[in-house]
Amino acid sequence: MMMSLGPYASFIVTSYAAAALVVVILIGWIALDYRSQTERLRELDRSGVTRRSGRSATDTP
């Protein structure tokens, strides 16, 4: 089934390709940032840093 996009076919195809490229770039950026953040959290955990929200209200700082 071949669709006829008319005289604006190149604009339509380019627009869809650009949108797909932006989505792929954003997915890659999020994946790399996720890896970076989890590695940073592992480093902090290994160095003994804990979350303040993990303490109870009766604990002394």
TrEMBL record:
Keyword annotations from UniProtKB, A to Z: Cell inner membrane, Cell membrane, Cytochrome c-type biogenesis, Membrane, Transmembrane, Transmembrane helix, Transport
GO biological process terms held by the UniProt record: cytochrome complex assembly; heme transport
Spans through the membrane: 12-32
Superkingdom classification of source: Bacteria
Compartment(s) of residence: Cell inner membrane
Pfam families: CcmD
Membrane topology: Single-pass membrane protein
Alphabetized InterPro entries for the sequence: Haem_export_protD_CcmD
Annotated GO CC locations: plasma membrane
UniProt function note: Required for the export of heme to the periplasm for the biogenesis of c-type cytochromes.
Entry's family note: Belongs to the CcmD/CycX/HelD family.
UniProt cross-references to NCBIfam families, sorted A to Z: cytochro_ccmD
Protein name as it appears in the record: Heme exporter protein D
Lineage start: Bacteria, Pseudomonadati, Pseudomonadota, Alphaproteobacteria, Hyphomicrobiales
Gene name per UniProt: cycX
